[in-house]
Design goal:
Low-confidence stretches of chain A: 72-87
Largest sheet of chain B: 7 strands, antiparallel
Number of domains of chain A: 2
Radius of gyration of chain B: 36 Å
Oligomer: heterodimer
Order of helices and strands of chain B: HHHHEEHEHEEEEHEEEHE
CATH class of the largest domain in chain A: Mainly Alpha
Shape of chain A: globular
Helix content of chain B: 25-40%
Distance between the termini of chain A: 57 Å
Radius of gyration of chain A: 17 Å
Helix content of chain A: over 70%
Largest interface: A-B, 52 and 37 residues
Number of strands of chain B: 11
Mean pLDDT of chain A: 83
Strand content of chain B: 15-25%
Number of strands of chain A: 0
Shape of chain B: elongated
CATH architecture of the largest domain in chain A: Orthogonal Bundle
Low-confidence stretches of chain B: 124-213, 220-225
Mean pLDDT of chain B: 69
Distance between the termini of chain B: 61 Å
Order of helices and strands of chain A: HHHHHHH
Chain lengths: ~170, ~350
């Protein structure tokens, strides 16, 4: 088993999740993740982990642009997000799950693009230097950005949660 | 690093606490922070708050997953796709080279014809009607002219015309709006020219048991000319691991037709069974395969289509997945063809 195959087995799911959180289409996320690793086979990058997430981010960006060109609305950009592809909910708590999902995507949408990128890359398992290399931030600024992004995500989520509770009551 | 360890009134900044909990600091930085934390209740509280924030963020993001369990497809599949892509790139490059070469030949031949026409006035015929004529039907009253300037008038041509009959030529030059004084242009029909790629000689096709030659798809398809018949070994090289065929039946020929940009080629593998029946397995983009199925004569039947590995095409609207299918056609009942299609192997 070579390094790339090992990386594929350990990071495929993370790349799919990373792409999914950017394009909100499960099938497309898997297609693009496979495309990322196929390209990695051809390029044999020196730092494969950072490289695959950089390519994934580029593919996701291209995908988003294409989607906008096709006049498709990304749920992330909407006030009232409707998931294109969400985990199958069970019958009894499907509504609650949908709402929870919408709150988190809404909170993520409330972040700036840079904060969101840093947060998603960190959640995908990248180190601070890798995040810095990909986003163009200084390594020292990654912690600051991450601290801000986490705080804003939680604040936005709590705000949406409060609004939902108020609406229900 | 800040000097908050020296001045006790200076506490650990929040971003450093995040970095500390994310294990993004050096060992010495961690040691400094831990020393401070052991003595500072305020920073201990802050660390707990940051840890809770961090854990909540992780928990929220963990809900944003396309499915509970993401299973990667076999790495071998990915390798095969990559090798197919490489093979296709090599094949395209070859095709492009041969296309350029063919274009060069066409240009050279055309230039030669034009030069001969210009330099030898007796070889140029001007037909009376202002349209290009075929060589088989020469103009009723051909006249010979010396090529003249753009501003030449019909009257001037008539004055220099000699009504001597000329031998039939394969090139006919017609004038466009000579009377109106517009440019005197030569139309050079080239009905017999073919792309070099269309006439690639068959070096050796696999032929077992005295098989019949491979029949090209019927129809008046403009793409027919770029179908290529190739030997089995070359076919394997071109198609990588995507050559459809039925095990146990001799292969009598393989044909390729290049796909659109980013698509793998359409492949037809012809095999001949013991009764002499030729069965063709067609694998390619779904529209192309359907088109080929529709164009068969009424006594040729086709199996149901089965999906094969799709193409990933970079189009103007971004990358998309283009479906590919496999079908088996032949002069056999549909049930038999369906059974054969189930036996078909993608090699």
């Amino acid at each position: 088993m070579d390094d790339l195959e090992r990386l594929y087995k350990t990071h495929y799911a993370a790349v799919v999740r990373f792409l999914y959180r950017k394009i909100w289409d499960a099938d497309r996320a898997e297609d693009l993740a496979q495309e990322v690793f196929i390209r990695a086979m051809a390029h044999r990058p020196e730092k494969p982990r950072a490289w695959i997430f950089a390519v994934a981010a580029n593919l996701a960006r291209d995908e988003a642009r294409a989607a906008i060109r096709r006049k498709k609305h990304l749920t992330l950009l909407k006030d009232d997000p409707i998931p294109l592809s969400t985990p199958e909910p069970s019958a009894e708590d499907s509504v609650e799950r949908e709402e929870r999902w919408a709150r988190v995507t809404g909170a993520l949408a409330a972040l700036t693009e840079r904060d969101r990128d840093v947060l998603l890359l960190w959640d995908a398992g990248l180190s601070y230097p890798e995040i810095a290399a990909q986003t163009g931030l200084a390594v020292g600024a990654v912690g600051t950005t991450l601290a801000r992004a986490r705080k804003r995500l939680i604040e936005a989520h709590d705000r949406l949660d409060y609004q939902a509770r108020t609406a229900h009551s | 690093m800040t000097d908050w360890t020296i001045k006790q009134e200076r506490h650990i900044p929040e971003d450093e606490l995040h970095a500390y909990l994310d294990q993004a600091l050096s060992r010495s930085q961690c040691a400094e922070i831990e020393t401070h934390l052991s003595a500072c209740k305020l920073c201990q509280g802050r660390r707990s708050a940051v840890a809770a924030l961090r854990d909540r963020t992780t928990a929220l993001l963990s809900g944003l997953t396309p499915r509970p369990v993401i299973v990667p497809p076999s790495f071998q599949d990915l390798r095969e796709r990559q090798s197919r892509r490489l093979a296709l790139a090599v094949w395209r490059a070859r095709l492009q080279r041969s296309g350029l070469w063919a274009a060069g030949v066409v240009a050279a031949v055309s230039a030669g014809w034009v030069a001969r026409t210009v330099l030898d006035p007796h070889r140029t015929t001007v037909s009376a009607p202002l349209v290009a004529q075929s060589t088989a039907t020469p103009a009723p009253a051909p006249v010979t002219v010396t090529p003249v300037a753009d501003s030449v008038s019909t009257a001037a041509i008539e004055q220099t015309a000699t009504p001597a009959p000329l031998p039939q030529r394969s090139l006919v030059v017609a004038t466009h709006n000579v009377s109106s004084g517009r440019s005197f242009r030569a139309l050079i029909p080239a009905p017999t020219l073919q792309l070099a790629s269309a006439v690639t000689p068959i070096t050796r096709t696999v032929s077992e048991g005295g098989a019949a030659p491979l029949a090209r798809p019927a129809g008046n398809d403009p793409f027919d000319r770029v179908w290529r018949v190739v030997p089995w070994e070359d076919a394997l090289q071109i198609a990588g691991s995507e050559l459809p065929f039925i095990e146990g039946i001799p292969v009598v020929g393989v044909m390729f037709q290049p796909g659109a940009l980013g698509e793998r080629p359409t492949v037809i593998v012809a095999q001949q069974d013991q009764n002499g029946e030729v069965i063709q397995s067609i694998e390619g983009p779904v529209a192309r395969v359907n088109e080929l199925r529709m164009r068969q004569s009424s006594d040729v039947h086709a199996s149901d289509v089965a999906r094969t590995a799709p193409d990933y095409v970079d189009g103007p609207g971004g990358m998309h997945r283009a479906l590919r299918v496999l079908t088996v056609i032949g002069r056999l009942p549909v049930d038999s063809l369906n059974a054969l299609a189930r036996m078909a192997t993608i090699r």
